[in-house]
Amino acid sequence: MGRRQELEKRQSLLARFGRMVAAETHFDGLLVIIADEVRNILSADRCSVFLVDAYKGELWTRIALGMEEKILRIPLGQGIAGFVAKTGSAVNIRDAYKDTRFAQDLDRITGYQTRSVLAVPLRGRDGKSLGVFEVLNKVKGSFTEEDEGLLRILATMAATFIENATLYEELRRSHLETIYRMALVAEYRDQEDTGRHLRRMSRFSGILAQGMGLPFAEAEDIRYAAPLHDIGKVAIPDSILRKPDKLTPEEFDEMKKHTVFGSRMLANAESRLLRLAAKIAVGHHEWWDGAGYPYGLKGEAISLEARIVTVADVFDALSSKRAYKGEWTVEDALHYIEERAGKQFDPRVVAALHDKFADILQARDEENRRMIEDEVAILRHLLPADSQRAV
Ligand code: C2E
Ligand code: SIN
Ligand code: SIN
Ligand code: FE
Ligand code: FE
Q1: Looking at residue 256, what is its pLDDT?
Q2: Which segments of the chain belong to CATH 1.10.3210.10?
Q3: 3-class DSSP state for residue 75?
Q4: How much distance in Å is there from the Cα of 201 to the middle of ligand 3?
Q5: Which phi and psi angles does 50 have, rounded to 5°?
Q6: Whole-angstrom Cα distance, residue 354 to residue 338?
Q7: What is the mean pLDDT of the chain?
Q8: Does domain 3-168 have CATH number 3.30.450.40?
Q9: Which CATH number fits domain 191-390: 3.10.450.50, 1.10.3210.10, 1.10.10.10, 1.20.1250.20?
Q10: Are strands 117-123 and 58-65 parallel, antiparallel or unpaired?
Q11: Spatial distance between the Cα atoms of 159 and 98, rounded to a whole number of angstroms
Q12: Helix-helix angle 357-369:196-211, to 10 degrees
């Protein structure tokens, strides 16, 4: 290729990079796209994006080990990437094995043979070190000064997008955390196994939603909104809420108000998840045949999300101990719900419970094994796996 065509090709790849990266808001997807595009633009065999974990004083990146993906962590200052992160200067070498800074361990783990390395720092808006951009093994020859300039430009572009995606993740994370902690408030007053019922029914709700064929993102929303279904119970007097016996009809009428209280607490929220939670709170004791409360809605007049959550909630209420009742076996709980398909419950949701029963039981076991006092465990459950890292 002539020099001119080479330049044109690079320019068009650069423009493409900007478009593709700007279109991706999901953090993980962003890193993959950045690495792929940069590799392509620089005619390198590999590109790694190392990110700083300031809390741990480490750099981390994702590496492929055969079919598996692993997070690799290296201390700041170690290896070439560590050197670049620490000093802020770029490194361009022809033969990594002749450079004392090069950490050979990584090659040993991955079976990769590194030759040429070009690495530049990734800096945030305020000059803060975000990580390192590294390309390995130029396809022909070694990396030029022009390559270095190009990688610096790409690093600047990528840094902006990485910072934005990080902010977005943090926001999402703290939002989910707040929602879950609000739900815990209500649960603390209600039951002894604080948190467990919420974690289980939240998982069940997500599994049922997916089992009904809802898109993953919608199932996730239902999962995260579900723990708020009984938030209205904070407004119910202890004498009723914690009564160890059957409720009188008057007391039960009081209790029924927790649905309306909950929806009032959550109504007209700015947040999509809170608005969804309001629908679930008001609808989670309605019955498919219209015999439920508070409004006696029937069939599809009840929101789908509420129809899903009610099955998750009742299944868990039956199969666990309450102040007023003992624990049923999971089989009895399943049979009870199956018998009431088309009466109390939406038959399609019951079918999903039947189909996904193994997954439900597995989620139940996992949640029961967690230490309830372990806040980290609560947070881990709370947050999607992909947002669990500090950047
Ligand atoms: P919860 O304990 O979270 O129960 C949620 C739903 O699970 C109940 O909604 C009901 O549909 C189902 N469920 C729970 N335990 C049983 C049971 O032993 N047998 C049957 N057949 N179904 C059960 P429901 O009935 O509308 O109750 C709403 C809430 O009212 C309950 O939430 C609980 O906080 C309270 N509650 C209901 N019945 C009693 C009671 O007899 N004594 C006390 N202290 N509270 C009760
Ligand atoms: C290092 O930074 O020393 C490791 C380089 C690599 O193989 O990715
Ligand atoms: C949340 O993230 O809002 C809590 C939902 C859950 O516990 O899965
Ligand atoms: Fe309820
Ligand atoms: Fe519940």
Answers
A1: 98
A2: 191-390
A3: strand
A4: 10
A5: -95, 135
A6: 8
A7: 88
A8: yes
A9: 1.10.3210.10
A10: unpaired
A11: 30
A12: 160
Give the pair of three-digit tokens for residue 300. Answer: 């599809």
d(CA 37, CA 43): 10
Instruction: Give pLDDT tens digits for 302-333.
Output: 999 999 999 999 999 999 988 788 899 999 99
In a mutational test of the pocket of ligand 1, which residue from 286, 325, 328 has the highest number of ligand atoms less than 8 Å from its CB? 325
Which ligand 2 atom lies nearest to the CA of residue 134?
A: 8
Most ligand 2 atoms within 8 A of CB, residue of 80, 99, 110 to mutate:
80
Residue for token digits 């590109």?
47
d(CA 231, CA 179): 10
**Nearest by Cα to 71 from 386, 313, 298:** 386
Q: Is 199 in the pocket of ligand 3 (CB under 6 A)?
A: yes
Q: Is the pLDDT assigned to residue 42 strictly greater than 80? A: yes
Could you read off the pLDDT of 43-74 as tens digits, one per residue? 999 999 999 988 888 898 887 666 677 788 88
What gap in Å lies between CA 260 and CA 112, rounded to an integer?
61
Q: What is the pTM of this model?
A: 0.71
Structure token digits, residue 390: 């500090």
Count CB neighbours of 86 within 10 A.
Answer: 16
**Number of neighbouring beta carbons within 10 Å of residue 196:** 18
| Backbone phi and psi for residue 119, each to the nearest 5 degrees, phi listed first | -135, 130
SS3 content of the chain, % helix, strand, coil (to 5): 60, 15, 30
